[in-house]
Amino acid sequence: MIRIAAETPWYDLFSRGARDWLRHNEKVRDAVKDTLPELLASSDLMTGPGSRSVAVPVKFLEHARLRLAEAQVNQGAGQGRGEPGDVLQPGREEGGEQGQAGGTNDGEVRFVVELKLDEIVDWLWEELKLPELKPKRTATMDQNEYTREGWDKRGARSRLDRRRTMKEAVKRHAVQGNTALADPEPLSLVNDDLRFRQLVKRPSPATSAAVIFALDVSGSMDEAQRRLAKQFFFFALQGIRRQYSKVETVFLAHAAQAWEFDESQFFQASSSGGTVTSSVARLALEVMEKRYEPSRYNVYFFYASDGENAAEDRDEARATLADIAGQVNYSGYCETGGVATFRPRDTQLAEIFSELKTSGLAVGTSHLASQDDVWSAIREFFTEQSKE
Amino acid sequence: MTELEDYGERIDALAKRLGLDYYTVDFEMAPASLMTEIAVYGLPVRMPHWSFGVRYIHQLVRQSMGHSKIFEVMFPGDPCRAFLMDGNSTAENALVTAHVLGHADFSKNNQLFARFHAMAGSNIVETAAAHAHRIQLAIESHGVEKVESVLDAALALEAHIDVTGELHRARYAEFLETKDKAPESQFQSRFRQLPGADAPVAQKNGQVRAPVPPHSEYDLLWFIANYAPELEQWERDIFLMVRTESFYFYPVFACQIMNEGWASYWHARLLREADFLPQPLYLSAIKAHSDVVRPFASGQQTALAINPYHLGFTIWERIVEKHGLERAREVRRDEDDFGFIRNFLDEELAEQSGLFVYETRPGDEIRVATKDISAIREAILAPKFNYGSPRVAATELKHDGSLTLVHDHASDGRGLDATRAKRVLDYVHRVWRRPVKLATANDKNEAVELAA
User: Fold this and answer.
1) What is the pLDDT of residue A373?
2) Where do runs of H (alpha helix) occur along chain A?
3) Interface probe with A: pick from B54, B224, B381, most Cβ of A within 10 Å
4) For residues A98-102, average pLDDT
5) From CA A79, how far away is CA B345, in angstroms rounded?
6) d(Cα A253, Cα A261) in Å, to the nearest integer?
7) Where are the domains of chain A?
């Protein structure tokens, strides 16, 4: 016997497949979150506010099953015209590469997860339990802002306040003796009833910050060290952006001399030759004086170097760095490279900065030998800052 | 009464007349979206798991590229449940109705299906829906992450059941059976009676605890559900649910070629003899039939896969032609794909169908390797051995609760894919909660041990 049921339209209402697909995507996002620092370091994100999201290409997650290892030669059953020895599909030209043959075809479909930068930084801050920064109280800058204030009988049409206008009309009718309720006729408006919203310029205090990044690009800084410095700079900047409505950045690089760069060239810059730290410190002072007066800006100074400075520059460097540290909210020094030891090597610059720190200035030092150190450096910096 | 219901009834009567024997079939019209999900989940309502989401997207992509069209799905049982796609034409659905009756006859009479039916009851669709509901409740009380990690492990081991064993199994005997003493010989009894002989020492320890497992245990889902040292009841429940569904899927998996072939044979025959169908409808149904049973995509000369509909259909036609319908019914009752292919795919048939074995070498060059009949049979059957997965057994549960799994790499011919095996081991470790080891071989065929 057979029975044919009527259609059940509710089948369309719920999709288990879509539900499980969304759950898969959630897991992908979590997985992406774990590898965020590396992902972010590899893309150029620092200048901001233009593209505030990262597109991360990800593979589908694979639910693993027990499977036999790939065989050298795979056999299968096929059907059609063909005699033993016939080639059904020619091999690749540059074939024979073992690594290639090992891949499975299932994992090839990729899709893109788009992550908002703000969201990422929020995750990180939550994850690292970082406190918020405290701006200097004095360093607020007045910024003009338009606010609504009052009404006028004249104005641009787009600012017509309808509710207010109607009220005026009702009042006028009441004064003229015909109550609106009793009168079935609609209210008539006259020009005198019109009310327009007015805008007034108002100075409002805004906090703004300037961040000066200084990087040692002398011959001794290799690619990996610059990468670490970049990661640190990036997250420090993101943290500062969370706090201030307006953040400006300055990129300085130096070897024996110092130059200002824009961000795109900053990390590519390299130079051979000696290291004279005072050159970049002087340039930073100059920039601050000209553009970011520390009494009006919250200035942050970050310096990354491998720590080796020319011996004869020692006193000069200490003096200029102390000058900077005295003016800015915070200056951070991160030393890159070296084997991961428990304590930074006692390089000249490390010594200078720890002296400055003991003398009570807002200075932080950290040592970046590997990826993980970036996080402890960031944590150190933000905890220091919020203590004050 | 719709047109389809009318045809359905007459096809049903015709099928009965031709000797098909089946339980009642409940048909339902379903939208394409549900059909897609059934193709992905294997069942209309099944437990949630993210891996189905991935398959779902792959399926949508395949369908949108036109590689795969779903006509029907049918769930054996009493009554059988079948879903027809509401977007299909009446001709297609008439064909599908006949096809489903073929499946219904097969699943009632084939021994593998009948065995599952006897063990697990007759309504897998509702059983699975109840499972899904229980898992939903577990998610509500334990959180999605916890439930997911149990499902990660259970579904990864989905195929690792003992298909020859019972669905409902008792735990191992706790103690070794005490061996009966050999009967005393005449000499011994006379010796015992001699003055001064010691009285026999009674056995001191009483019963001896049996090792767990007492033999290599291939039913990993059952073993974990019963012997994992710290498994909670609801987790155990999930393992057993996955296991039940896995038992259900086994006959479908192991008889795919026979079953699809049998259904195709019967839909062709029923349509041929259904003189009540109007000519145009018959024609378009027959066209749909030839689309289903053609060996390769249109415009192609070869295919690197065997279409089970085509292969099964050809073999069944040959059996009926050579040995008669009665013999065919016996074959349908007794065999699964292994016996079916080995006993009934002969050289002549392979030659006619143009079957061959191909080899893919490093660099992706594909060549026709051989047309030897036994090589062809084994190439067709190779993906079906041991439920399509490597042979892995639990061999030891130590006193500290650690588990040893052993992959029988000698019989599988090579070791496991180490990356995946390691991840599966991690899944298992999360529910076993004690150390888990897996012995297999590496690519040089040396013994290696993975641990989690």
Assistant:
1) 76
2) 16-34, 36-42, 98-101, 117-128, 162-175, 223-243, 263-266, 277-290, 314-327, 348-358, 371-387
3) B54
4) 36
5) 14
6) 7
7) 16-62+109-120, 143-203, 207-387
Any chain A CB within 8 A of the CB of B379?
yes
Which value does ipTM take for this structure? Answer: 0.85
B102: closest CA among B21, B39, B162? B21
Spatial distance between the Cα atoms of B183 and B181, rounded to a whole number of angstroms: 6
Nearest residue in chain B measured CA to CA from A69: B417
Class of domain A207-387 as given by CATH: alpha beta
Query: How many residue pairs bridge chain A and chain B with CB atoms within 8 Å of each other?
Result: 258
- Give the chain B residue nearest A95 (alpha carbons): B363
Partners of B440 in the β-ladder: B448
Which residues, other chains included, contact A149 with Cβ-Cβ below 8 Å and sequence gap of 6+?
A198, A199, A200, A202
Determine the average pLDDT of the residues in A203-224.
78
- Restricting to B residues 257-296, those with a Cβ less than 8 Å away from any Cβ of A are 295-296
**pLDDT at residue B64, rounded to an integer:** 80
Residue B142 burial class via C-beta count within 10 angstroms: exposed 0-12, middle 13-18, buried 19 and up: middle
Tell me the average pLDDT of chain B.
90
Task: Give B326→chain A minimum CA distance, Å.
Answer: 23
CB A197 within 8 A of CB A153: no
* pTM beyond 0.90, yes or no: no
Cβ separation of A17 and B53 shorter than 8 Å?
yes
Does position B24 have pLDDT exceeding 80, yes or no? yes
> Which of A129-133, A374-378, B120-124 has the lowest average pLDDT?
A129-133
